[in-house]
Structures are given as C-alpha cells and as structure tokens.
Amino acid sequence: MIGLPVAIRLALAAARELQNGEVCFVGIGNPSDAALLAKHSRAPELTLIFESGVVGSNPISKPPLSTGSPSVAEKATMITDGLAVFSELQAGRIDVGLLSAAQVDLFGNLNSTVIGSYNQPKIRMVGSGGAHDIACLVKRLIILMPHDPRRFLEKVDFITSPGLSDRRSDLKLPPGPVSLITERARFSFESGTAALSATMPGYSEEDAVEGLSWKVKKTPDFASIEKFGKKELEAARSCLQYLFN
Amino acid sequence: MDKSAEISDLVEEHVNDGDTIFVGGFGHCVPFALCFEIIRQGKRDLTLCRSGTDILFDIMIGAGVASKVIFGYLGNPGIGLGHAFRRAVEAGTLTYEDWTNMSMILRFEAARQGIPFLPARILQLGDIANASIPGTIEVKTIDCPYTSEKLACIPALKPDVALVHAHQSDRSGNVQLIGVDGDMFTGALASEKILVTVERFVDTARITRLPEATRIPAYRTTAVAAVPWGAHPSYVEGVYGRDDDQYFAYDREARNVEGLEDYLRRWIYNCANHSAYLNAVGKKRLNVLEEQASRREIG
Question: Domain boundaries in chain A?
C-alpha cells in the first residue's frame, strides 16, 4: 500500500467518504481523482457535477486539466451552464463537495489566494474559483490534503473558503467541513476542530500527525481504516493510470 | 443586416482603450485569436473580467494590455499559477478584484437582467470580502424583506465588450455553440457589445434547423468574423481537441520575464495575423488536434 503514489493513496482514502447515489460537486486534481475512483468502484451511481455546468460527468478517457476540458464533457449526461449548477448548490441539492487547497487550518478554513499578507504577498496564488462557493453551500464538505505539515497551520494566511463557523446557522449555511483526508489519516470536524478519527492502511497514529503543529485529539470512535479492497485498487489502476507514470 | 467583418476590424472598430472586457470561454472556445489581435493592435488600459480564467488572461497581463482584472480564478487550469499575474501583483503594477466563480456569474446575471444586484448566501464568511483586510472587495448585505434572512448583495457587472468564439453563425450574427458554456453566454449577454469569431459561416437556413443551439441572437451581436482555429490552444467541441501541451509549455516559459517575452514574440508579435499564427503552430499539430475532436456534431 505504502508503495503506491501519494496521489493514489489520497484518492483511495477520499473515495471512501462518498456514498453510492450521492450528488457530488467536484474540483480539478485530487478531488476529481477521488470522485472518479469512487464512481468506478464503490459508488457507481455517484453523479459528478463540475462548475463549468457539466452534470453526470465521467472523465475516464483523460484526467481533465480544466473543469471545461473535453473529457469532462465527453461522457456527460447533461451540459448546462455555471449559473444552473451553482443554483443547485445554493438551493441545497448537492450532497457533497470535495476541495483541496494550498493551506488548511484546525477549523477547516482553506487558503488558495495568497501566501503572506493579502496586500504584500510572498506568493500570489490563483484565488477561489468555485471553492469559496462550494465551502459555503455544499451539504457535506470533504477536504483533501497531501500530508505536508507546512500546509497544516494553526491559522491560514487568508480564508478563501470558510470552514467551521458559529455564524453558519444564522446565515442559513450548512455546517461546512465534516472531514479532512490525507493519505495517512482521516480527521473529523465533529467536535469543533480537526480530530484524528482514523488511520489509513499502513500508517500508525504517529505517522498520521507527524510534523503537524496541531494539538490533535482523537475521536471516541477512532479506528484504523480497513485495507483497500481488490476492486478499489483495480479501479485506481484503470481510472488513475496517469498518476502511476 | 450583414454583421460579418474581418477580425482586425472587429478589434479596431469596437475595442477602445480603457474598456471593460468580458473574455468568453470556460476552458472551451476561449477566444485566443481575438485577444491576440487585441495585443497586436496594442490596446491599453483594459479591465478584463470573467469567472474562471484561462492562460489567455495571464498572457494579456504579460503583454501589458490589461491594467485591471476582475475574476474568480486566475491561473493555468490544472497546471499552476498565472506567472505574469503573480509577478504583477507582487510588484504592485496591476489592480485586481478577487471574487469567486459563482459571484462573478451572479454579477453578469444581474447585468444581463438589468438589475443592480442579486442576493446570495455566499461571501458572508471568510476573507474574500473582509472589511478589515484592505484591498479585498466590499460586498454589502441586506435583510430579506420577506424572511429577514441575511444575504449578500452581489453587484451587477456590465462589461463594455464581450469576446466570444463559437462554432458557427450566419452573417447576420445568430451564433451557435454546443458543448461547455460555463459563464460564456451569461457574460456575453450582460455586455453592451458582443464581438464574435466562429469556425465557419453558415446560411440562416442551417441556423433554423437547430435553433436550440443559438446562444446569441443576431440583434445582440455587434460583429462577427469567420476565424477557423480561433480558439486554439483551447478546443471546440466536435471540431478540434485541446492542445494541453501548449498549456504546459506556457507554464514552463512564462516563469520568468524573458521566457514570457519569447512566448509573446513567437506566437503573437512575429505572426502578422491569425493565418501566420496557424503556420507557426504547423499543419501536423493541427491535424493531430483535429483527430482528437469528439464525434459530436452541431447541426
């Protein structure tokens, strides 16, 4: 298991968060890898929606670089526009969203805008895209991050996409992040901050938090996640072939 | 009315220095030929806007035609940062507004509907619209007069000019497209003028065979030019595939100023027009992309 590339292990771990029959709003990269893998293993009835307005997507021929790339549209069951799919999101019709970012903090806030200060950035990044909108509006938010301690902060430099917040219920927004998945572990946000709820196959509790500045509690239901099955690994080999190269 | 024209005339007659420009193309049908012509003609002080941008925004920033950008995402999709954008922000030489893809679409939708704002639940948490961080956008809120819910007022954005590339049009400007739309027609129909390039002109009889594919009606089109391959290196559904290699090449070359200048010379300044650009890309490459096109067909 440890021999697999990080991106594959991350996708395998995150795919476990998706249930058959759900409607899933997907970003490019680790999120689309995980959603595609789920659809081709444990959740064949997963509906993939991209912000470009593509519904029922199945980008199996080539990993898409853009949410508007040819493979996103290729086997889709519906092509509408961005307004329509963001409307579905705001109306609470989308079950789950997957996001990644440059930085994450203990409350599940995500940063994809700047490293450093907003006005004098060390590195200016790409900005929100649809990430802020998904983080605010989706019923269940899953965060995917490779285990890179520099990217796990007490407080992100800039909150592009909001995590947990006391103000969410007043604003009639859904609760926000439910889990943070790395290739080593699953963290749950149920208790109000990220808490270690599971380790991935082949990793110990020490591995799960190695190098993190976070003071991480364990959830009462903490467990080791069972090994990935033959079907999941086969799907990873066929759907995510490009990550093996 | 015949609205057909040459691409150089579209830009010369209808794009003015200082204009706010909506750049169409959400990954699909990105109007590269039109924007390269804008760069060749040396337009200045443009404000560029859209939700999720393509490398075309970064190229226009690098070429010095844009003084301001209003966007949801600005980078090289799936590959990395917008290098020219990053340098300009870090040097303080560019004005910019960070929005989100949904809020940009709502800004255009409000303008399309001719109303001053649309209410939404986004942009009330986080730092994108945070009054205590100077330089971030200001978004006012409202208490719903019916339910008292707190909502963000997403202000209308009405561009002076929209740039669109599509599959086909008749000479009067009924513009047809299939495939990914994103915010292309929300943004176009929000704009005062709409400039269009198409892969080909067709007769109006052909338009009426599939009027569902018409996305811009003739009365809204300002002018239209036939420019085959006008979206390269992006793609046109059923006509040619996306030239992903070009996006990777731009990522490598635009990492420093000299590399970006080489890129601009090779693909824009050293090409007198779009035909010269296609010669520079080469017949062989174009044939490969043509073979990669999906089998879907517009009527």
Answer: 6-243
